[in-house]
Amino acid sequence: MKNIMGLINLHESHDLLREITRYRPVAAIPFAGRYRLIDFVLSNFINSGITNVGILSAGNSRSLMDHIRSGKEWDLARKRDGLFLLPSLQSGTVQGAFPDDLADFFSNLDYIRSSRQPYVLLAGSRAVCNINFQDVFKLHLEKQADITVLYKEYTAAAVKRLAGATMLETDQAGRIIDMEICPVNPRSNKLSLEMYLLDRQLLVDLIDSSMSRGGTNIARDCFMKNLKELKIYGYPFTGYLARVDSVQNYFNQSMELLRPEKWQELFFANGSIYTKVKDEAPAKYQHDSNVRNSLVANGSVIAGKVENSILFRGVRVHKDARVINSIIMQKGEIGPGVVLENVICDKDVKISAGRKLKGELNHPIVIEKGTVI
After folding, report:
1. Taking a C-beta distance cutoff of 8 angstroms, is the pair 6, 13 a contact?
2. Predicted pLDDT of residue 23
3. What residue segments make up the domains of the chain, in order of their start?
């Protein structure tokens, strides 16, 4: 896989994630106790032998840059190839089903042209999975495809719960014959993972051609509009997938990781998932604590009751507090006697003693970063 470069496109819509993306891009959303969404695609790249990775930034990426730093945790701090942060021409949050990302690709064509690898694997960050791309590359060569797109099949009922999705339709040979971006009533049950493998020079030509014709979105103007002219094939992914496209999906997919078999498949199926190391002490459980079926990250101190919940690094749950079916992000503090149920607390949230907050499983309460209640 030394002949493939990785490109991570951070132009991902924030429309249904506003409460937790006000101060960060989608790629920097905390997930599963210790991780950010971008950790999964970076880990998949390095586990597949891809060591030249460019990240096309978008909007306010300060928190993301602080997280990935030099890329050392993913073995991407290298003298040759390694991690490259590609600047964006835009500011503000990314909105809409067709984000204007093509101009940023065009402004960074020099990086794509000068790379040594003849192939490019383009991916976003909101498709959370553990995959080795070697089989994808084999299929790409066997089919003599121009572009290979990864997808996952869903049931008809599950498709209705997807928001802002790109759906694919394939023929019997696996060739993609139709693509729908953000359909109201999808005609297919094949969800695109928004991961594309193609020849590097072809990507350069598509970007240049689309820009010269007024294109603005790479998926629509480079891939979707060339379905008939190019041989575009699908690769069926059958492993565990968590797609973070709305607050409700973020909550549901997080809670699903409390099932041991789902956790094992996501974090160990095709290699380990790496993240920023903080060298904190292990979680501390005080004498009166009661913790059941929960993920508790290092640096946390638990004196109350935690059930069916996910606690990130440095969280403190005081005595007589109860946290049920909730997500508490980094350095959250839950005061004495507090009761939280079906709640998402962003980073640095403090809940004062005696407060009670209860959401619904299908509509959790979201408390924004740094809020004191």
Report:
1. no
2. 86
3. 4-268, 284-367
Give how far the C-alpha of residue 318 lies from the chain's centroid of Cα atoms, to the nearest Å: 32
Distance, in Å, from the CA atom of 320 to the CA atom of 300, rounded to the nearest integer, reads 16
- Sequence-distant (6+) residues with CB within 8 A of 141 are none
Cβ-in-10-Å burial (0-12, 13-18, 19+) of 325 comes to: buried
Q: The tokens of 322 are what?
A: 């109860």
**Which CATH code is given to the segment(s) 284-367?**
2.160.10.10
Q: Describe the chain by its helix, strand, coil percentages, rounded to 5.
A: 25, 30, 45
Report how far apart, in Å, the C-alpha atoms of 137 and of each of 143, 169, 241 are: 10, 21, 20
Q: How many CB atoms lie within 10 A of CB 311?
A: 28
Average pLDDT, the chain: 94
Distance CA 174, CA 161 (A): 25
Residues whose CB is less than 8 angstroms from the CB of residue 361 and which lie 6 or more positions away in sequence, other chains included: 325, 342
Single-letter residue type at 325: N
- Rounded to an integer, the average pLDDT of 353-368 is 96
Residue pointed to by tokens 């980094």: 330
Where do we find the tokens 């204007």?
100
Looking at the predicted structure, is the pLDDT value of residue 364 above 80? yes
Does the pLDDT of residue 264 top 70, yes or no? Answer: yes
Q: Which of 64-68, 92-96, 278-282 has the lowest mean pLDDT?
A: 92-96
Cβ 7 vs Cβ 120: under 8 Å? yes
Using CB atoms within 10 Å of the CB of residue 116, give its burial: 0 to 12 exposed, 13 to 18 middle, 19+ buried: exposed
Superfamily of domain covering 4-268: Spore Coat Polysaccharide Biosynthesis Protein SpsA; Chain A (3.90.550.10)
Residue 97 confidence class, pLDDT cut points 50, 70, 90: low
Across-strand partners of 86? 56
The residues, ordered by sequence, that sit 6+ positions from 176 with a Cβ below 8 Å of its Cβ are 149, 168, 169, 170, 227, 232, 233, 234
Helix (H) or strand (E) holding 136, with range, is helix 134-142
Yes or no: say if 36 and 55 are a contact pair by the CB < 8 Å rule. Answer: no
Instruction: Of 344, 346, 322, 325, give the one whose Cα is nearest residue 335.
Output: 322
Return d(Cα 28, Cα 304) in angstroms, integer: 29
Task: Provide the token pair at 354.
Answer: 């005696």
